[in-house]
Amino acid sequence: MDKSLGSILYITLGCAKNEVDTDRMRSLLAASGYTEASSASEADLAIINTCSFLASATSESIECTLELADEVSEGVRATPIVMCGCVPSRYGDDLPPELPEVAAFVKTDEEDGIVSVVDGLLGVSRTEPAHVPQVKRTVEGAVAYVKISDGCDRMCSFCAIPYIRGRYHSRPAERIIAEAHELVCGGVSEIVLIGQDTGVWGNDLSPEERGDGPANLAQLLVAVAEALRPHHVWIRVLYLQPEGMTDELISAIRDTPEVLPYIDIPIQHCSSRVLEKMRREGSPEEYEGLFARLREQIPGMVIRSTALVGFPTETDDEFEELLSFVDRIGFDYMSVFAYSQEDGTLAARMEGQIPEEVKLERAQAATDLAEALGFAATAAHVGETAEVIVDGIEETEDGPELIGHAWFQAPDSDGAVHLDIDEASVGDILEVEFTDSFCYELIGKVVR
Predict the structure, then answer these.
(1) Statement: residue 54 has pLDDT above 90
(2) pTM score, two decimals?
(3) Per-residue pLDDT band at 77 (split at 50, 70, 90)
(4) Cα separation, 234 vs 190, whole angstroms
(5) 386-403 pLDDT per residue, tens
(6) Could you give all domains of the chain from N- to C-terminal order, each with its CATH number?
(7) Cα 69 vs. chain centroid, distance in angstroms?
(8) H-helix or E-strand containing 88?
(9) How many angstroms separate the CA atoms of 370 and 359, rounded?
(10) How far apart are CA 202 and CA 361, in angstroms?
């Protein structure tokens, strides 16, 4: 299409899954004749993709939307705002009266129709249907997230995701593989497979839907790796629940060179009683056995986890049990969240809600421990040599500096590697010796 139909500003809040959804909308709109704006003053329309995982995320999404409305109202042109994603999915018909500043609301399962929404708001009429690209991605950086599923069937008592994203549904393997292949051919060096619960991928697919393709995550990882050869590419998988760590999956991670020995397993807690009230499976003994098995069977395994503190009725002793467990396991990386009383969830109606100040104290104590363990794990890599992907350039007081991440660092989560050279391209994979560390960051000297 020779002439732009309008310029779109994209704002994404929340997790990597939202980044993927925004990129999909960007791809559809770009193929349909729209360009991208870098600021509200340049935009004919703004799309804000929202998060509603926690009450604080919902508040941030609404505040960001209102700030954007203030900004565009002061501009020269009228700029409609489209709110997409989790907030519209969660609150639906309650939003239009509360947010008259927003021109349209698009739920997560309606985002593939974004072209029609934008066309309508900008008065664009088409003689032919909008073009739909075969692979709906536009990623140009070193790393690309690929969603293998959406929704969740777990119904944890503290979590609103099933009400926002719906029931679990796996993406077909051929679409995942085609998307990953297209991204790698476009220069991406790392594919990160994500979903609400990646370990159960494929369980909901019928034999007819699977055909001769992979039937579970382990087989999917192998199939993706085989499809991406002979490219030099890393494959990482995030958001695995403990129950998803089967022997077959452990073998696939260990025996497939492209798949990184990095596992992200949110435990949330270790107390059997608290886990039961969370409507999650597991016990300290089961978890400890799992992590020991992972480290025994996958040499050099790096483990990230997540803890939720201040859950209703959590006692001081149970919190101390959690700290002791985390210290004993020695996670390489760990995120800590204070429990949030989310509307519509079972836990929000439970008796024994923990006072806010107690939740924050526990969160800080758990974070302090997580950082102590994480800083030590990072420092342990000093003196080692490993591959590092170049992510970009960062301006410092001493001038520009190359920034990358090693295989044991999930992008945007686990710190970075600061490199000692100033000539390299985004996506290059360099051999680096780690010479120093600070917090989660590493200093690297390029070997070759």
Answers:
(1) no
(2) 0.89
(3) low
(4) 5
(5) 999 999 888 777 777 889
(6) 7-122 (3.40.50.12160), 143-379 (3.80.30.20), 385-446 (2.40.50.140)
(7) 27
(8) helix 86-91
(9) 16
(10) 40
